[in-house]
Amino acid sequence: MDLSTPIRAALTLEKLPRRQRGTVASIDWNRLAEAEARRLRELGFDEGVGIEVLHRASLGRGPIACRIGRMTVALRRAVADTIHVAPLSVAAIA
Amino acid sequence: MNAAPLVALVGNPNAGKSALFNALTGARQKVGNYPGVTVERKSGRLVLDDGRPVELVDLPGAYSLEPSSPDERVTRDVVTGKGSLERRPDALVVVIDAANLDNHLRFALQLIALGLPVVVALNMVDLAERDGLVLDPAALSRDLGVPVIPTVAVRKRGLDDLKAQLTDTIGGGAPHAEPRTLETGGALQRRARQIAASAVVSEAPARRWANMADSIALHPVIGPMLLVAVLFVMFQAVFSWAAVPQDLIDSGFAWLEAAVKAALPDGFLQSMLADGLIAGVGAVIVFLPQILILFLFILVLEASGYMVRAAFLMDRLMATVGLSGRAFIPLLSSFACAVPGIMATRTIEDEKDRLTTILIAPLMTCSARWPVYTLIIGAMIPNREVMPFVRLQGLVMFGLLVMGIAGAYFAALVLRRTVTKGASSGFMMEMPKYQMPQLKDLAIGLWTRAVIFLKRAGTIIAATTLVLWLLLSFPKPPANSGISPVDYSVAGRIGDGIEVLVRPIGFNRDIALALLPAMAAREVAVSAIGTVYAIDDTSAGGEDKITEKLRGRWTLPTALAFLMWFVFAPQCISTIAVTRRETNGWKWPAFMVGYLFAAAYIMAGITYWLAVAAGL
């Protein structure tokens, strides 16, 4: 199973389908408040790290739970929208 | 000058520092499974293998040396020696979650670069292995340049090795190196990831069952339903499980009261002990089982990791009043007691957010309200089944709880638009792995709470009850005058004075009497009512329970208004004191007391007049 080929980099974490694995392609650091950007980095968000959306809360636009590295992190959609993801090919899984 | 070397436990949140601290020092520090359990430094003593004592401090978890919340500031100040009152540690034990290596190593690298002697405790290696992750501590030690000891703090594994290494590190008088400058941001992150990757021997994909558990717990529809169900079961259990032990305690105190009355001659001493102390304190201690059951539930929620899932589910709702899901954790803790709840707000980064959370925390139904609610509901609300498994008394209790939450919601809504106005803060939180709560930790948590409760009963509550008894007992009415002793007493007359103020909201003189000493602590209202009716008991039998007496003297609208009063009224010295400490001044506690009393008066009044109009 080949999970290493990025197919496109046009997706933000906010739009990434659930359970679709990817890697962080880029993060719009300048769209984030300074403290927010720092916390995001401290939680392990960085270019090249494996990422996957695990859950989306209900109640309209609730937060997102995603796996980053080996950790699960909850964040709001506005922040998720600044994180661009390169999805990995899932042809082999499907 | 303290001669014992100072060693600090430091690391990311939820790495298991407090568990390690407890295991090393035999202390009983609170542990839990969510980031931000420890919000202040705690110290204890550890004896090294060579017999030397060491002062060990447990620091709040942090993600880096640039603090973003008050609890992280404590950690930064201690390890960098910037705190004016703090001694700089002689060595650091950097605690790392083995399953979260790449992330925790980032902070570890920063700490190592400070130049203090460091021992790394690679904690929770058992969970990492359960996760399919096998690590090589030797490789990690080589890359970091400091000793690395694998540990499982909760099972006391690796402690001897850790102590031996500490003895070595401190005993050798390890020199403090010069602080080094580190790469920052992304570069530091990448180095941490590289080191982590080279320490991994083998790795299997992360566990499936935790994902399955979260698929239910965080499900868009099932998740919130589950949360409501958990809270509902929790509050029903408080009523139904506690019945038997409560009856036992109740009959114990009744027996004691009767024994004292039989053993002592009629008069001052007999009345003071039986009517004052035993009736008053007993009326409060009866609620110990309920409080412990409530705490058990909250401890299990905290220890299992579900608390953060609840925060996740609540974030959207909290956002509508300008708060975040993170504030939900201190607020849920406030159901047990607002004091630790308010202290737990230190993990909230945004200052306005934190202040708002502090101001609404007293609206959560803390355990001190349970005695008041239970007594009045038990006496005045029929316990009929309204639907299978749901009784009216439990439903009213749940209603009061919801009232508190709704009040807090509305208060936050108004506060965030007026006095604590500010940009809406974000929500970004690490979700811990689920863990089976350790029986011992639960037992310690319950024991600590029981001791605090009994201490309160023995001090604040006993003292205010005794003072009230004295004021209620003197002066004595003339013999055969037919005047009730309470009416004639000093307290009775004070009560008459206060009654004028509270009559518009349906309160009687007895309530006015109970409210005053209950300023110290809410439970005192119960013991005060107990004392008033014990003294006023002119009937021949005289051994009626308080509930029987309440039924004879209170109307339902009065009882409902009284309950509503306690939803809002900030009657707790400890809460006011902790608010003063956490906000550094009297301004905010004064504001809090003011707005809550106003709300209590208005809401109790509305309740009373609605109930009267409804013909209850």
Automatic annotation (TrEMBL), chain A:
<feature type="domain" description="Ferrous iron transporter FeoA-like">
    <location>
        <begin position="11"/>
        <end position="87"/>
    </location>
</feature>
<dbReference type="InterPro" id="IPR008988">
    <property type="entry name" value="Transcriptional_repressor_C"/>
</dbReference>
<dbReference type="InterPro" id="IPR038157">
    <property type="entry name" value="FeoA_core_dom"/>
</dbReference>
<dbReference type="InterPro" id="IPR007167">
    <property type="entry name" value="Fe-transptr_FeoA-like"/>
</dbReference>
<keyword id="KW-0408">Iron</keyword>
<dbReference type="GO" id="GO:0046914">
    <property type="term" value="F:transition metal ion binding"/>
</dbReference>
<protein>
    <submittedName>
        <fullName>Ferrous iron transport protein A</fullName>
    </submittedName>
</protein>
<dbReference type="Pfam" id="PF04023">
    <property type="entry name" value="FeoA"/>
</dbReference>
<dbReference type="InterPro" id="IPR052713">
    <property type="entry name" value="FeoA"/>
</dbReference>
From TrEMBL, chain B:
<dbReference type="InterPro" id="IPR011642">
    <property type="entry name" value="Gate_dom"/>
</dbReference>
<feature type="transmembrane region" description="Helical">
    <location>
        <begin position="277"/>
        <end position="301"/>
    </location>
</feature>
<feature type="transmembrane region" description="Helical">
    <location>
        <begin position="321"/>
        <end position="343"/>
    </location>
</feature>
<dbReference type="InterPro" id="IPR030389">
    <property type="entry name" value="G_FEOB_dom"/>
</dbReference>
<feature type="transmembrane region" description="Helical">
    <location>
        <begin position="590"/>
        <end position="611"/>
    </location>
</feature>
<keyword id="KW-0406">Ion transport</keyword>
<dbReference type="InterPro" id="IPR006073">
    <property type="entry name" value="GTP-bd"/>
</dbReference>
<feature type="transmembrane region" description="Helical">
    <location>
        <begin position="393"/>
        <end position="415"/>
    </location>
</feature>
<feature type="transmembrane region" description="Helical">
    <location>
        <begin position="221"/>
        <end position="244"/>
    </location>
</feature>
<feature type="transmembrane region" description="Helical">
    <location>
        <begin position="559"/>
        <end position="578"/>
    </location>
</feature>
<keyword id="KW-0547">Nucleotide-binding</keyword>
<keyword id="KW-0342">GTP-binding</keyword>
<keyword id="KW-0410">Iron transport</keyword>
<protein>
    <recommendedName>
        <fullName>Fe(2+) transporter FeoB</fullName>
    </recommendedName>
</protein>
<feature type="transmembrane region" description="Helical">
    <location>
        <begin position="453"/>
        <end position="472"/>
    </location>
</feature>
<feature type="domain" description="FeoB-type G">
    <location>
        <begin position="4"/>
        <end position="172"/>
    </location>
</feature>
<keyword id="KW-1003">Cell membrane</keyword>
<dbReference type="InterPro" id="IPR011640">
    <property type="entry name" value="Fe2_transport_prot_B_C"/>
</dbReference>
<dbReference type="GO" id="GO:0005525">
    <property type="term" value="F:GTP binding"/>
</dbReference>
<dbReference type="InterPro" id="IPR027417">
    <property type="entry name" value="P-loop_NTPase"/>
</dbReference>
<keyword id="KW-0812">Transmembrane</keyword>
<keyword id="KW-0997">Cell inner membrane</keyword>
